C-alpha cells in the first residue's frame, strides 16, 4: 500500500470511530444540563475555577477528575472557554461561557428550549426507531 492510500485508510478509520463515539458529545451536554454548570458559571458573572464549579454542584460524591474531563471536552466543542490566570502556584484555569453557545443552555433563558429537547423521553423515542 502506498503512503497516501494508508493515510486515507487511517483517516477513514478515525472518521468511523468518531461517528461510533459521537454520542459522548450529547451525553456530555446532558451532564452539563443536569448539573447546572452553565448557571453556576453565569451566577458568578465571569470565568471561574473548577473548584468553584464543583462547589456549586449539589452532589455528595462529585468526582473532580471526571468534571475536569467533561469541561475539557466541552471547551474543545466551544461550549465553554478557558482563561489562564497566573497565581503563586503556577497558572489557574478559569472556565467561562461562550457568548453565542452557552446561553442556549441556561435555565430560564429565552433560549433554553434545549432543556426540553434533552429529556430522557425524547431520547427514548429516538432509540425506539427501527
UniProtKB/TrEMBL annotation:
InterPro entries membership: COMT-like, COMT_dimerisation
Every O-methyltransferase dimerisation domain range: 20-105
GO terms of molecular function: methyltransferase activity; protein dimerization activity
PANTHER family noted in UniProt: O-METHYLTRANSFERASE
Protein name listed in UniProt: O-methyltransferase dimerisation domain-containing protein
